[in-house]
């Protein structure tokens, strides 16, 4: 079985002005498509083909750079498209909000912690909000296409929200202004999807 590039659940221009159309076209059609194809090539004939991407990443030999980079890239972008929405910027449901308050003190504190994780990730990588069994939340960041499902990455739990801070995710629209991109991201978060994912994984 091979992995397939998922369709975007909205049009390329749906997230404007926060994330521009051209960036979405290249990001989904070139970058995510590339990770997907490279992942399929990397696992072909290895026995990994019968596993889900979550299973592959959580039991990965971290020295296997092709699967680490492309499997991470496949999973991370699939999650990213699903936690974005043109009608985003709402708020977490009661269940998730209560976990955010209990883990961070307030939504504003969470937002500050997440924005800082995204802004201070040096070079390319991702910022995450992860849930541990029982509902405890954690904000962290990873380099390159690593993610919290991978062992020993210094970032644990199941990722329910992720922000791509590679320059390919924002450079056309924001150039070097990563903090502005991070602020814009908060206007297009699909909190309904994130809340559902929290309920499923907590
Ligand atoms: Mn990307």
What would you note in describing this structure?
There is one protein chain. With 202 residues, this protein is mainly alpha-helical. The protein folds into two domains: 21-82, Helix Hairpins, CATH 1.10.287; 94-201, Iron/manganese superoxide dismutase, C-terminal domain (minor pseudopilin epsh fold), CATH 3.55.40. The chain is 47% helix and 10% strand. It contains eight helices and three strands; from the N terminus they run H-H-H-H-H-E-E-E-H-H-H. The chain has helices spanning 21-43, 53-58, 65-82, 94-104, 107-120, 171-174, 178-185, 191-201; strands spanning 125-131, 137-143, 158-164. A three-stranded antiparallel β-sheet has the order 2-1-3. A hairpin with a 5-residue loop joins strand 1 and strand 2 (137-143). Helix 1 packs antiparallel against helix 3. The relative contact order is 0.17. Bound molecules: manganese (III) ion. Manganese (III) ion (MN3) binds at residues 27, 31, 77, 164, 166, 168-169.
What structural keywords apply?
202 residues, Helix Hairpins, minor pseudopilin epsh fold, three-stranded antiparallel beta sheet, binds manganese (III) ion
Task: Sum this structure up briefly.
The chain is mostly helical. It contains eight helices and three strands.
